[in-house]
């Protein structure tokens, strides 16, 4: 039902001179401010009166013993030394013990803070003119009260300075008195000796020179720099990777990164069109053509190639063997890149699969992608079959299952018998949701199950939780595609099954997120010194929140508000970007330095992280908020165009957030270049070591 709080018939802003509520609100704020100001002014006047009375006691001003000891303990070593030196020369010199200015600093105390709670009441006036008149009257009164407070504060400050000067003079007189002179001098000498005490720095280790007799310390650097950001821990040296496998993984990742940059450049341009729809009038740059170019390029180009590239590293590593065939890996890479390239050309030319979301590529082009994935599946299965370990690690469970599900949904989505009528709608929901959940999400979870324990240097928290999440996701996620078509012509029972399956997704999501978070148990301190773990943490957070958000969207009551709005766009970016992209970046930053021996500048990795995260929040949160208002507006019976006008400022935030995300991708590509192609920088120690190795090799006898 409509809520008048969010959609008022008059369309008046709350803070408006034509709105009685806004004027009364301003008046109440002014009254509260005036009352607080008067209360504060009253307290300061009373304090001023007390200070004035104390100052007017007369010239006979003496310190109590407690005050004398307090002032005495506030002297530092320099002041005590000055006093003792002056006391030694007092037969020929005279002067004050310490500077009056120093004593003033010692004697100034903390000021009490006064506050008064706002007084609430019922305002009886209802006429706009009366309210405005009272506002105009209260404004100068409030200004005058503030000026009066400033005047009282200045006068109080002057009185305090005078009081401090009198206390300083009394303190000096007390120290000069014969009755306290000898005792005071002894106390001051003991105090100065205590203040001058310093540790020698050898109390714990002694004075023996440290030696590394076991050879435990390596690569010691005495050259310090001024860090702009906190220094992160560099990757440890690992056993060498097969050069052929390293080239394959790097080419997959480089291809994925280029598709990410190109695809999000298209997405950035599409986002700008929401703010400036008439920016161009070229057919192949129209929104209807560029939007599927963006989604398919980041789906099949960036995410898919990134996942497959990391899988080519993971699958043989957890089996402790080599990849079954390097040639097949290259064939798959060529076919998938060709499918994305041809698909982009076809979509911009107006050739598509009748607008099916995420399956806009026509079937001959998607066939190339499918063949490439089949080749990868065969390669991975043969590699797993030849493993040197007894068990199949859970990462390979997820990766192989994701590939099988990906091929299944692709075949079903392009079968001719499902290309017409209501069946196509049902298959469309199945395809796009299984593509996200059983291809991208399933695959990425397998990547996390390998790289997260590796980066933390500890095993996954619970293998059983991982298996529970694995089977329950297969059970529930495969039936939820129809929740995109609630209240449609799709059978009611099928909609209900999808809603129940969406609710059941709480089990694998909670199990998986709990497993990942508890893996950090005892090693949270490593996050501060790592530039990969923050990517994992963000991915885990969005995995939990984004997945449960999808569950919330599936219910019929929420569908009434959010369906057909930009809430779906925000949700898809929270999942595909907040989960998939961040997990892929974490894996890439973890593996590429191991393959090339080079690391990206930590400051540019941090810039990439924060631009992507802040950009995503700027993108998604305004869209979710605006979409909720838009849904409520529709429910109240307002015209469609009112929703368009309502969303204009939120689309601006979408463009701003998308721009930050795109800029983060530029830094990601730069970081990838620094890790792969940039010349490695050497310091003097490394250069000297390499020259020594070369000299030793030249001097050794030739065999």
Shape: flat
Percent of residues in beta strands: under 5%
Q: Segments where pLDDT lies below 50 for 5+ residues?
A: 1-17, 93-123
Helix content: 55-70%
CATH superfamily of the domain at 244-678: Cytochrome c oxidase-like, subunit I domain
Strand and helix order:
HHHHHHHHHHHHHHHHHHHHH
Distance between the termini: 89 Å
Number of strands: 0
User: Tally the helices: what do you get?
Assistant: 21
Class computed from helices, strands and strand pairing:
mainly alpha
Please give the CATH class of the domain at 244-678: Mainly Alpha
Mean pLDDT: 82
- Please describe the biggest sheet, giving its number of strands, its sense, and whether it closes into a barrel: none
What's the Cα radius of gyration?
36 Å
CATH architecture of the domain at 244-678: Up-down Bundle
**CATH third-tier fold name of the domain at 244-678:** Cytochrome C Oxidase, Chain A
GO cellular component, one term: membrane
GO biological process, one term: electron transport coupled proton transport
Transmembrane segments: 20-43, 92-110, 130-150, 248-272, 297-316, 328-349, 361-381, 393-415, 435-452, 464-486, 492-511, 523-544, 574-592, 604-625, 651-673
Domain Cytochrome oxidase subunit I profile: 247-703
């Amino acid at each position: 039902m409509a809520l008048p709080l969010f959609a008022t018939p008059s369309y008046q802003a709350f803070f408006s001179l034509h709105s009685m509520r806004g004027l009364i609100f301003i008046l109440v704020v002014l009254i509260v401010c005036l009352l607080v100001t008067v209360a504060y002014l009253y307290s300061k006047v009373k304090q001023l009166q007390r200070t004035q009375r104390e100052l007017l006691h007369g010239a006979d001003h003496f310190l109590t013993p407690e005050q004398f000891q307090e002032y005495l303990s506030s002297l530092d070593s320099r002041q005590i030394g000055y006093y003792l030196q002056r006391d030694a020369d007092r037969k020929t010199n005279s002067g004050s013990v310490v500077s009056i200015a120093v004593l003033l600093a010692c004697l100034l105390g903390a000021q009490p803070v006064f506050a008064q709670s706002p007084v609430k009441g019922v305002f009886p006036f209802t006429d706009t003119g009366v309210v405005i008149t009272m506002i105009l009257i209260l404004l100068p009164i409030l200004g005058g009260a503030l000026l009066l407070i400033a005047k009282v504060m200045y006068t109080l400050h002057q009185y305090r300075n005078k009081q401090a000067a009198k206390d300083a003079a009394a303190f000096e007189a007390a120290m000069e008195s014969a009755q306290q002179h000898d005792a005071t001098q002894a106390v001051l000498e003991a105090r100065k000796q205590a203040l001058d005490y310093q540790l020698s720095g050898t109390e714990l280790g002694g004075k023996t020179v440290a030696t590394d007799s076991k050879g435990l310390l390596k690569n010691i650097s005495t050259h310090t720099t001024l860090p702009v950001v906190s220094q992160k821990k560099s990757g440890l040296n690992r056993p060498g990777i097969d050069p052929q496998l390293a080239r394959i993984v790097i080419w997959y990742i480089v291809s994925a990164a280029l598709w990410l940059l190109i695809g999000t450049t298209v997405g950035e341009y599409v986002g700008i069109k929401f703010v400036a729809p008439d920016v161009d009038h070229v057919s192949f740059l129209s929104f209807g053509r560029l939007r599927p170019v963006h989604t398919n390029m980041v789906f099949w180009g960036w995410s898919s190639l990134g996942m497959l590239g990391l899988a080519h590293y993971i699958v043989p590593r957890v089996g402790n063997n080599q990849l079954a065939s390097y040639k097949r890996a290259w064939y798959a890479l060529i076919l998938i890149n060709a499918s994305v390239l041809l698909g982009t050309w076809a979509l911009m030319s107006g050739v598509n699969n009748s607008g099916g979301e995420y399956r806009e590529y026509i079937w001959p082009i998607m066939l190339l992608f499918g063949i490439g994935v089949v080749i990868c599946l065969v390669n991975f299965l043969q590699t797993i079959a030849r493993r040197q370990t007894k068990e199949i690690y859970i990462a390979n469970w997820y990766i192989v299952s994701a590939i099988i599900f990906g091929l299944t949904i692709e075949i079903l989505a392009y079968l001719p018998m499902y290309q017409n009528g209501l069946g196509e709608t049902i298959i469309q929901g199945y395809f796009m949701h299984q593509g996200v959940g059983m291809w991208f999400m399933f695959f990425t979870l397998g990547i996390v199950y390998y790289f997260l324990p590796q980066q933390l240097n500890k095993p996954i928290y619970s293998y059983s939780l991982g298996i529970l999440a694995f089977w329950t996701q297969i059970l529930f996620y495969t039936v939820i595609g129809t929740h995109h078509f609630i209240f449609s012509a799709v059978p009611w029972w099928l909609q209900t099954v999808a809603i129940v399956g969406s609710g059941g997704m709480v089990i694998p999501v909670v199990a998986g997120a709990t497993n990942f978070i508890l893996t950090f148990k005892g090693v949270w301190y490593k996050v501060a010194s790592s530039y990969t773990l923050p990517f994992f943490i963000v991915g885990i957070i969005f995995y939990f929140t984004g997945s449960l958000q999808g569950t919330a969207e599936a219910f019929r009551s929420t569908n009434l508000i959010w369906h057909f709005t930009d809430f779906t766009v925000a949700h898809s970016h929270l999942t595909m970007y907040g989960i998939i992209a961040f997990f892929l970046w974490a894996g890439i930053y973890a593996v590429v330095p191991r393959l090339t021996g080079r690391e990206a500048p930590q400051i540019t990795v941090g810039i990439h992280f924060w631009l992507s995260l802040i950009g995503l929040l700027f993108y998604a949160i305004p869209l979710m908020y605006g979409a909720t208002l838009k849904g409520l507006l529709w429910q109240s019976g307002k015209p469609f165009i009112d929703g368009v006008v309502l969303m204009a400022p939120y689309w601006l935030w979408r463009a701003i957030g998308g721009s930050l995300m795109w800029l983060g991708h530029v830094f990601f590509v730069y970081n990838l270049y620094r890790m792969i192609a940039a010349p490695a920088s050497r310091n003097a120690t490394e250069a000297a070591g390499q020259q020594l190795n070369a000299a030793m090799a030249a001097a050794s006898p030739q065999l």
